[in-house]
Write the structure tokens for this entry.
Amino acid sequence: LMKERYCSPHWWFSVKHPAKRTGYAHKKTPEGLLQVYLSLSGGVIESLLITGDFFSSSRDINRIESALRWSATDEKSLEKNLEKVVGDNAVCGIDLSSLRETITAAKENYCLAKEDR
């Protein structure tokens, strides 16, 4: 079991995706791949998962995810909420505009997927 499962690259690089229908977007940044999964409820972010191969502490990512949960998804609200949590600093080298753009793209992909249903 150890060799077949836990020593395989598939296991190392697997990502646990949210179980609900989600919007997904990714962006390659100089610091690594940024991936965002989100689901919406009535125009607000119900759940959000930020992941990727950039280096970060779980605390920083959890703080951002928590701050954006149950917030509006328009660009001004996203920027305002991100600035409250992060300020003008980059998150693990990823600038706030990249994070905001990736969240917005995930929202758009969620809406497109919803229309296809």
Observations:
- The chain has a mean pLDDT of 79.
- The first helix runs from residue 2 to 6.
